[in-house]
Predict the structure.
Amino acid sequence: MEATLHRTPLYARHVALGARLVPFAGFEMPVQYEGVIPEHRAVRSDCGVFDVSHMGELHVDGPTAQAFLQATLSNDLDRVGDGEAQYTLLTNEQGGIVDDLIVYRFAHGQFLLVVNASNREAVFGWLKDREPRGTEVRDASDEYGLLAVQGPRSLERLGLSDAPAFTHDMGEIDGVEVMICRTGYTGEKGVELCCAAEDALELWDTVVARNAVPCGLGARDTLRLEVCYPLHGNDIGPETDAISAGLGWACALATEFTGVDVLRRIREDGPTRKLVPFVMEERAVPRHGMPIEGGGEVTSGTHSPMLDQGIGMGYVPAGSSAPGYELTIDVRGRPRRARVVTKPIYRKEE
Amino acid sequence: MAAPESYPDELKYHPEHDWARIEGEDATLGVTWFAQDALGELVHYEAPAVGSTVTKDESYGEVESVKAVSDIVAPLSGEVVEVNQKVVDEPETVNDDPYGEGWLIRIRMSDPGEVDALMDAEAYREHVAEQ
């Protein structure tokens, strides 16, 4: 028997909206409501709302929390001020990626880490095991609801003014108190709204009443892949390093953190393989795990709703990683041509 | 827009959610409303070549949505005499009209007796209800 799946506070809404529910990271989550493609287009053209309450929230507090996180996470936390946020990696001794996450700083010694649902226990355990005197790590995932409201009209729909990316502030939407985070996973303007779990239903209802289109994990995946945001467990993981994955920008190699020596060496020598974005030159949909001729593998693949063609990312030998390089992907025994492109795969026409 | 659920009486059905329209020695094949609904909007149709043979109960092609790929199982055996190029070019045609414009291939049957083993619409509706 399968283990019992968790449900977010919005489960009843997903069922009422006729969502197709699938198990994801131990949760019963909506993969789509009306359909992946219309939901994807809603986010690119207007505004969509995603229930991402399955993600983990860890509080890291105390007088030594800053130094602890700076020595544990890959990016330079000292550059993050109060009310700011940063994309960063939790790395292991081999330079592999335990998780990619966003750290939000409230004040000195007061941080919130939003981590991937499937890595919540791994990250919590990792930090708890190494927690120094003067730092307390607390898993508060069940205390919060989290909604991502994304799209070019999202701020207007929510009645919010613009603010720089990777900042956050407390606020309210129609009377519901929320932490408003200027972050997202779609490549569009938007916010992620963190609220008390008991307020999540009211927040969802008010956001939907403001004409945000409910969107599932299916559209979340196609949106993030069009803009080449990596998915932990697919494109990156404990066995892959940040340099080869193209995440060197999130690693402050001048600072000291777990595995930094390995990453410095890879940077110095140059990675032997690289994670590259590609588009199909022939009609075919690349999928996770498909071999790339010459020694590579597709790590994420889908059909791009905006480009109407197959797109993906995969690791290839460094020698065949330059944009323009032609790849051949083994699509269930059929060779199909693809071409390495620059990030992002999809770029909005301004 | 996606078509409403239906299983026309004049078609024959295979339990793997494929239909056949018998026209003399030929049969037109496609996937049922249930199959396209389970997959979602189709984005790719990997069609067999004209002149190739298909075998009852075996895969002759693939249809894919954004999220999933599915083998298309032949309800009957025969030689492919026509492939629906409209579906190759616009796979979502299957979602819009699974029994009409969204047909997949036309075959010359090699064993018309196989038709007797297929389900009629009523039996197939019961089969779907059990899914």
Observations:
- The two ends of chain A are 51 Å apart (CA to CA).
